[in-house]
Amino acid sequence: MVVTVEVHDNPDEQRYEAVVDGELAGFAAYSTQPGLIVFVHTEVKDGFEGHGVGSILIRDALDDARRRGFEVLPFCPFVNSFIAEHREFVDLVPGSRRQEFGL
Q1: Please, what is the end-to-end C-alpha distance for the chain in angstroms?
Q2: What own/partner pairs with CB < 8 Å and gap ≥ 24 does 66-74 have?
């Protein structure tokens, strides 16, 4: 199954949302402080798991955080493991906090 995933920020809900064929497929919840985004939970709905939806969602969310000049705290285990596997995003986590997240 090949899916096209659209990712957008929904600041009213404080989450990035992944949409497939007009249906909410998953989200990454966050909170923000000036210059900082804290990812707290990621969820991919049944039926969309195993198709890369979560990875596309997090990659797009981290790319957006970089564009916006945010530092990232990956308290969500999925976001943290994504950053650990995709080292090009480690620089988003403040150097003083990387050890805390095993990065």
Answers
A1: 33
A2: 66/92, 69/35, 70/32, 70/35, 70/36, 70/37, 71/35, 71/36, 71/37, 72/36, 72/37, 72/38, 72/39, 73/36, 73/37, 73/38, 73/39, 73/97, 73/101, 74/39, 74/101
Task: List CB contacts of 8: < 8 A, sequence separation 6 or more.
Answer: 16, 17, 19
pLDDT, tens only, 30-88: 999 999 999 999 999 999 998 899 999 999 999 999 999 999 999 999 999 999 999 99
Domain assignments of the chain as residue spans, ordered by start: 5-93
Could you count the other beta carbons within 10 Å of the beta carbon of residue 72? 25
For domain 5-93, the question of CATH label 3.30.1330.10 is answered with no
CA distances from 45 to 2, 30, 69, 91 (A): 16, 18, 29, 29
